[in-house]
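call fold(seq) -> C-alpha cells
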Amino acid sequence: MQNIIVLGAGMVGSAMAIDLVKNHQVTISDFSLTALHAAQEKCPPLKTEVIDVTNKPQLQQLLQPFDLVICAVPGFLGFQTLEYIIDAEKNVVDISFFPENALELHNLAKEKNVTAIVDCGVAPGMGNIILGYYNELLQVTDFECLVGGLPKIKKWPFNYKAPFSPIDVIEEYTRPARYVENGKMITREALTDVELVEFEKVGSLESFNSDGLRSLIYTMPHIPNMKEKTLRYPGHVEYIKVLKESGFFSETPIEVGGNKISPLDFTSKLLFNEWKLLPTEEEITVMKITVVGLNQNDEKEKIVYELYDEYNSKTKTSSMARTTGYTATAAAHLIINKLFTEKGIFPPELVGKHKNCFEFVVNYLKDRGIVYTKTSTVLTA
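ret:
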C-alpha cells in the first residue's frame, strides 16, 4: 500500500483519488473546501487537505510524507506545480494540460531521481501510449488522433459540456495548433480544417485542429505525418469562432462602467454555467486513433483503435473523468509496481513503447469498462 496525494479535486482529480483509494492510502487536496467536501462525501475514506499549489514551501512541506503525487491542477498552474513536485523529489503522474514543454524539466527530474509521467490522460495520453507501442513494431508514416468529450443531450447553442474549467477549454480554442505534414511542422490557428467524420454510435461529428500533438513533435520527429483533432457536434465551431473573432477570448482588459475587466475572464464566467457538466449528467467520450506504417513483412498496415465510452451511472463517474483519470491511475501503478522505473520526464509514448507497460494500461482500463477496439488492415497499392 502506497501513500498517494492527488493535487486537484475537480471531476477528474476526484475520480482518480476514488480509483486509487481502493488499494492505497489517498489524500486529495485543493484550494476549494467545497470541492474537497464533495469528494469526501462521495468517498469517505479519502483524506483531504487545503492547499495553494502556488505556495512552494507550503506545497513541498505537504508532499513530504507521500510516495507518489498525481497532479490534476488547471493548465495555467501545471508547469510550475510540476516543477515544485519534482524539486521536492517526488515521483509524479501529471494530467494538467499546460502550454509549456514538460521536457524542459527532464534534467531536473533526472537530477532529483524522479520518475515523472506527463500528459497522461486520454488525449494527450492513451493515444500517445498506442503510438509509442506501434512505433516499435512498424515503420510509422502516419498518425491521427480524433477525440472529444460530448454531452449525450445537446443544448443549443454550443451542444457542449466541459468536465473541467472553461478556461482550459478556451485555451484549446486559442492556442495555435501544430501538426506535422510531409516531415514539416505546420502551425495553424485552432478551429481550422473543419471536417465531418462519421461515428457508428454517434453519427456525424466535426473535427478541427487543436494543439494535441505536444510531446510527439519532439519525441517522434521521424514520423512524417502526425495530426490531432478535437471532435464536437456539428455547428459548435461556428459559434466559438464568432466569440473568438469578436474579442471575447482577449486577455487585454477593457473598461466597463469605470472598471477594467478582461474579456476572457468575463467569457469564462458566463460559460462556466453554460458548459458546467452536472455530477450526474450523461456524456460520452469518442476517440479514434489511426496508425499507418510498414510492418516486418514490408506491407503497409493500418491499425485503428476506437473508443466509445459513456457516463457510469453505477459509480456516478463521468466518461471523460474515467477515460482521462484511469489512464493516469494506470500509469501510477506502473510506477508503484516498478514496471516503469526510468528517471526523468516521460510523455506517454515513451512509456507505451514498452510492451509490458502498454499491455498493463490496456488491461487496467478494460477492468474498469474502458475498452478500446482494435482493427488491423493490410493496405494494397
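The first helix runs from residue 11 to 20.
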